[in-house]
Write a structure and sequence with these properties.
The chain is α+β, with helices and mostly antiparallel strands. It has seven helices and 13 strands. This is OB domain-containing protein.
Length: 242
């Protein structure tokens, strides 16, 4: 089962394996890092990465691309950029959005104080101070998105905490995981009877445990019927409409 990366923003990252000597290649690869759901509190508590000072570490994971959901305050417009503060209930944090073209202008025009937004951006340090350099802003009209974002943050936290402690992913007494659609997901040990899982890391096995084809196809069909995704080259490849 394969999906376009633009549809599902990755939010569980493995430990960095970059060289301790940052190179242009490693710096360039930051743009390819997964999108990480975070809260303001996590950003405030983030520490500089030992491997790459341009990155920050959240719960033992190098984080560069982040997504936040919160309410906008203190919007300030200038000729080349717009700055604002985002409040998600765990704290407040300053963000900056550069305005380079008409699309950027359109995005910031819809940005108003005390409105809820979803932002995607790079977590950076400027003059010793952390900031989120935003490259996408979208207003939130369905408040379920707020709850969904915090669920993603909790899921990422739980997964990374288990990775740090070496604990395995939770399973029921029958060693099967119940999916939201009621399907029973086989554990990676059961899957090994059908597929060779030797050499797979804990993240790979976690994916096998939780993402079974029947429930995944059902979820994608539901998203497609709601107009949120569309199929591309075949029925197994989808892309977001947003």
């Amino acid at each position: 089962m394969m999906f376009e990366s633009s549809q599902f923003d990755g939010f569980v990252s493995t430990q960095s394996t970059q060289s301790t000597d940052p190179s242009p290649t490693s710096a360039k690869s930051r743009d390819d890092q997964p999108m990480y759901p975070v809260t303001v509190k996590q950003i405030i508590e983030a520490t500089p990465s030992a491997d790459d000072k341009s990155n920050f570490v959240i719960e033992g994971v190098d984080v560069y691309n982040v997504k936040l959901v919160g309410m906008v305050y203190n919007k300030s417009e200038r000729v080349t950029d717009v700055s604002f503060v985002i409040d998600d209930g765990t704290g407040r944090f300053g963000c900056n959005r550069w305005v380079n073209d008409s699309q950027d202008t359109k995005e910031v025009e819809g940005l108003t104080d005390e409105s809820y937004v979803r932002i995607h951006g790079h977590l950076k340090s400027f003059q010793g101070k952390k900031q989120v350099v935003v490259y996408a802003i979208r207003p939130i009209n369905d408040y379920n998105e707020i709850a969904n974002h915090f669920l993603e943050c909790v899921h990422a936290h739980c997964c990374n905490t288990r990775l740090q402690t070496g604990a395995s992913a939770p399973t029921s007494a029958s060693s099967a995981v119940s999916t939201p659609n009621g399907h029973q997901a086989n554990s990676s040990s059961q899957i090994s009877h059908e597929y060779n899982v030797d050499g797979l890391g804990s993240i790979d096995k976690m994916v096998l445990d939780h993402l079974q084809q029947p429930s995944s196809l059902e979820a994608m069909e539901s998203l497609e019927s709601e107009g949120l995704v569309y199929s591309t080259i075949d029925e197994f490849h989808y892309k977001s409409t947003s």
